[in-house]
Amino acid sequence: MTTSHCIGVDIGGTKIEAALVTRAAVEGREAVSFMWRERVATPKGDYEGTVRAVGELVRKLERETGVRGSIGIGAPGSVSPSTGLHRNSNSTCINGRSFREDLTRELDREICISNDANCLALSETIFGAARGARVVFGVILGTGVGGGVVLHGRVWDGANGIGGEWGHSTMPTVEQSILRATRCYCGHVGCREQFLSGPALEARYAQRSGRTVALSDIEIAAANGDEHAREVLEFFVEGLSQSLASVCNFLDPEAIVLGGGVSNLGASIDALPARVAQLIFSDSFNTRIVRAELGDSSGVLGAACLRSLRTDRG
């Protein structure tokens, strides 16, 4: 048996989590456990505060465990290959900043940083619902819509560092006039994120019903016959199915792993495989569409693995 320790940090819009992870290979199978794990609230809209919070968490981890190690970090958005600045994050305060370099200085060592959806896809490929799959598309459906690709056990960033970023292509099933009127924080119009994220679905229900409720309550309302709630969930299933069918047509993954709060919807998520099967360019459908098994551990586990599994670029 071989054992290694690695530090992972998951930077989200509401929380920052750091963990010391132990990985062990037993007869060719990976096992993982947490030696230390803690989270703090993300300083909202505060770039310098976010960098400091990461540093303080990691230093606390190392004081309490006595382990100083290499660090992998998962965060929304990505580093531009041309400028080295962070971009494309829905935590907009880190966009246009030297995020990787500032974290490197704060932590006083080299770091590896990757998109949070890449980290989810990686951890679920190694330890979770997509274990053993050669081609995996990981999806985050939460406050935003993210995607990441893992090929043969390695994150695929792509030539432009945007591998898997399906949330910022045009939403199918929506009229052009509505698409043109729906502007995303990224500067484009009609992005999937503006229709399939949790806040977008809640806003759609509020516009139709005049009531503001949580997504979980919309699902309950639909089951109790609320027509507005049913329309919102039918729109979600059709839009997500067509989006995933497009992924299958160009990537043809063995597994699609769904994470984030929206993936907790019951019947809507369960309906996806049959609908996607009707839409793809094939006479059979062998792609597994599964919920993430690792829950909110997916991001920090994937981040911890980044140093030991080299991130490839196209």
Briefly characterize the structure.
This protein has 314 residues and is an alpha/beta fold. The chain contains eleven helices and twelve strands.
Account of the protein in words:
The protein has 314 residues and is of the alpha/beta class. The chain folds into two domains: 118 residues, ATPase, nucleotide binding domain (Nucleotidyltransferase, domain 5), CATH 3.30.420.40; 161 residues, Nucleotidyltransferase, domain 5, CATH 3.30.420.40. It is 37% helix and 24% strand. It contains eleven helices and twelve strands. A five-stranded mixed β-sheet has the order 3-2-1-4-7, with helices on both faces. It has a five-stranded mixed β-sheet with strand order 10-9-8-11-12. The C terminus is likely disordered.
Fill in the keyword field for this structure.
314 residues, alpha/beta, 12 strands, 11 helices, Nucleotidyltransferase, domain 5, globular, five-stranded mixed sheet, disordered C terminus
The CATH class name of the largest domain reads Alpha Beta
Q: Strands of the biggest beta sheet: in what spatial order?
A: 3-2-1-4-7
What number of domains? 2
Structural class: alpha/beta
Radius of gyration: 19 Å
The CATH homologous superfamily of the largest domain corresponds to ATPase, nucleotide binding domain
Tally the helices: what do you get? 11
List the helices and strands and how they pair.
Blueprint: E1 2-11, E2 15-26, E3 29-41, H1 47-65, E4 71-75, E5 78-79, E6 86-87, H2 99-107, E7 111-115, H3 116-126, E8 135-141, E9 145-151, E10 154-155, H4 176-181, H5 193-196, H6 198-209, H7 215-223, H8 227-251, E11 255-259, H9 267-270, H10 272-279, E12 288-291, H11 298-305
